[in-house]
Amino acid sequence: MKSKNSKRLESIKAAHKSEKSNYSARMEDYLEIISELVELKGYATTLDISRYMNVSAPSVTKMLQRLDENGFLEYEKYHGINLTNKGIQIAEGIRQKHGILLEFFEILGIGDETANQDIEGIEHHLNAKTIRQLRKFITFLKSNPKILDNFKNL
User: Fold this and answer.
1) Geometric angle at alpha carbon 112, from 103 and 56, rounded to 5°
2) CA distances (Å), origin 66, targets 41, 62, 71, 72, 80
């Protein structure tokens, strides 16, 4: 038992020691929301972002300034919010992860509402290798309908 706990602690330590980026899951959420709003409406406002993020407008302003400082967007108070190429890449990466995870959860028979809630909690924390393997697994399952049907009939 002690050895098992020790291994678990070491794995937790290793996970926290892994490559740290200069952005957080929260920053990714903002970039994702901004990208979705721009795609939907052609623009994103502080008020829109605060509604979707469930935070105050001043909190959004602070985060927008931080994202601007880190080169993810161009932000001028009372003007537009434009994602930079760097910001677009991060938002698109999150969108792709979300799509792959949603497809996987659908295969598992998890409803959209639950799947989307769960995905929001994990999409930022998965390694690119894990996402590639999930994509391969989904492709494998879809190309083998008998296996997929057998699973669905369990």
Assistant:
1) 115
2) 24, 6, 9, 9, 16
Can you tell me the distance from the alpha carbon of 152 to that of 10, in angstroms, rounded to the nearest whole number?
A: 37
Give yes or no for a contact between 48 and 60, defined as CB atoms under 8 angstroms apart.
Answer: no
Residue 82: strand pairing partners: 74
User: How far is Cα 48 from Cα 95, in angstroms, rounded to an integer?
Assistant: 19
Closest CA relative to residue 131, chosen from 89, 90, 103, 91: 103
Calculate what percentage of the chain has a pLDDT beyond 90.
69
- Smallest CA-to-CA distance from 104 within 125, 91, 122 is with 122
Residue for token pair 């590639």: 132
Classify 125 as helix, strand or coil: coil
Residues pairing with 122 in the sheet? none
User: How far lies 91's CA from each of 23, 80, 108, 123, in Å?
Assistant: 12, 18, 26, 12
**Per-residue pLDDT tens over the stretch 11-58:** 777 766 654 455 688 999 999 999 999 999 988 999 999 999 999 999
Q: What are phi and psi of 73, to 5 degrees?
A: -155, 170
CA-nearest of 128, 101, 129 to 115 is: 101
